[in-house]
Specification:
By secondary structure, this protein is an alpha/beta fold. It has one domain: TIM Barrel, CATH 3.20.20.190. 32% of the residues lie in helices and 20% in strands. The protein is built from 9 helices and 11 strands. The protein has an 8-stranded parallel barrel with strand order 1-4-6-7-8-9-10-11, surrounded by 7 helices. Strands 2-3 form a two-stranded antiparallel sheet. Helix 4 packs across helix 5.
Amino acid sequence: MSIFGGRPTILGHRGLGAGVVDGHAENTPDSFRGAVKEGLRWIETDVRRTLDNAVVVGHNPSLHDGSFLEQLTLAQARELGVLTIEELLEELPDNIGVNLDVKSCLEDALRPPAQTTAAMVAPLARQISRERPFLLSSFDASVVLLVRERAPEVPLGLLTWFTFPLRKAIAAAAQLHVEVVSAQVGSFLRRSVEPKLPQVSNDYAVDVAHRAGLEVMCWCPDLEDARDLFEAGVDGVVVNDVPRALEGLRGVAD
């Protein structure tokens, strides 16, 4: 199964991009509508749970007033401008792909598996994957395992943190039997990763990933690095400024 349809793909980070892009704040209806208007085929956003187990859009554990999402009811979170996943999807045509990054929380350590953030997200992910191009990913490998158990048809991705070595990221993703490995741009920059050790080339690392049945994503490269990564065979990049990325990568990706 191909996640990105065999085409080099740009994904909008939290809509049009992280922070504020062209006057639109991240993870807001205007930002998601703006990404679609620009012609993007995929968007990326983050999901968290509320105190009453609703699944909402949110990157940081806390909001602008300092309150923690996990300690708010859905009604309280909505008063502070938080979107539900259903409200996000209403902003997107059915042909637009969605990559949900599941943010587990500290309190998941105290919960049985059936009550974790992953378990809350799994039924929703199953439904979304039936309706549009979809990928669920997480930095938390337990999320991947729990969602696979509860919704085996959902395409999954393993995210890795800043400069995490590709040799470990790709091997882990392959053995977890996910569809996508998504590494931060520093993992692909030879000067940034394990400077005292020989570094595999991006071309070779991506080739190994593809032979293992994985698609490869990179999150938050600049335009120059994104172009180099697409030349190395990377399947998708998550960008922080959609309009500039689409202009700078015209003819390379969409």
